[in-house]
Specification:
436 residues; alpha/beta; Urease, subunit C, domain 1; TIM Barrel; 2 domains; seven-stranded mixed β-sheet; five-stranded parallel β-sheet; globular; binds zinc ion; hydrolase activity, acting on carbon-nitrogen (but not peptide) bonds
Amino acid sequence: MKIIKAGLLLTSISLVNFAAFAQVDGVIYAGKVLVKPEAGALSKQTLVLEEGKVSAIHEGYVLPEKLGLKDVKLYDLKDYYVMPGMIDMHVHLTFERDKHANPHGWLTQDNADYALNSLPYLQKTLDAGFTTVRDLGANYHVIFPLKRAVEKQLIVGPRIFASGNAVSATGGHGDMHGYRHDLTDAMNTSIGICDGADDCQRAVREVIKYGADVIKITATGGVLSNTAAGLNQQLTDDELNAIVNTAHNLGRKVAAHAHGTRGVNAAIRAGVDSIEHGSYLDDESIALFKKHDTYLVPTLLAGYTVSKEVLSNPNMPKAIANKVREVAPVVERAFRNALKNNVNIAFGTDSGVSRHGDNAKEAQLMVEYGMTPKQVLVSATRSAAKLLGQEDTLGSLEVGKYADIIAIKANPEEDISALSEVSFVMKNGVVYKNQL
Ligand SMILES: [Zn+2]
């Protein structure tokens, strides 16, 4: 027994050493720093980092010795714009859409293949300055081991909050489509698929049992499922109420994929915490967002990416291509309407539909569609942290928050495209990218 234990210990130590991470305290000299995103950047500040958190902030550049610190690592970011690591509230880390890929490749892949294939996606996401993500829809066999491996520092990746399998109606957007029914039966895990209020209550309990930090539901049809079932409501009002009550009772928030107006409005009325996509919003939707303090996660980059693809991919199934053509023109209008009416907006890309690591392109679209750069910065930090329920630990660089810190050469308040050129990435006090 002792030998086995010693063996396990050696294995874990050698893996950590192999990855060459060290938890270091440090001091940052920041030329500009976004401590409270909604307040704008401060100039010439010294940040002290201890045990993976921001422990103090001082005006000016203070020598470590004056702070009683010896042998401490000093990061000179005097020529940089320093800000909290960005948060992407809607990613799919376990896949990346590739129009050249064998469409039946998934039939040959084991869960371990999916996990290993995902490693570069996690790395690219963190390299792009996204230190936290919310993964909304992945096989639980794959995403939760990845999340645990990041936490143990066995692999490089962002902090992950994940839903695992989505909760969906039979035949709904989160179910499996487009193959012979004996094949879909054989491949379906049925985790999260439910019909009727009681069954949907069971499904929520089930996905939480398998590790869900947040509940992803498909309240309406979706663009990329291979079924001509439209984009409207797929979960009934009773099912939505049962899902939200069960999730909230078990301490989980609910993220509702929703395009069609009726489905959006029904989901908000049932009390979901965020609407993902929200392509068709009417005046009632806006009023409901305001009344229930619901967040919109617009995922503009997903619409932009698939509308470009539909023009160049003749193999895109007809059911999907038709839905892309239907939804693409309305997304900008919905976003502008929400923005004009001060709906809570949290940053989210649906990466996986677009390429991992390109997450900051969403910021450019948000500005193109009417947001100020400052609003974008808040949406990717403070607002996202609030929607995650992590406002005490993430989303700003106030004392006590995680040392999730990125640095950028240009000022994103002046040109939002600067967010695509991140030079330095620290997560939990550990440096993962340093191209100063
Ligand atoms: Zn998605």
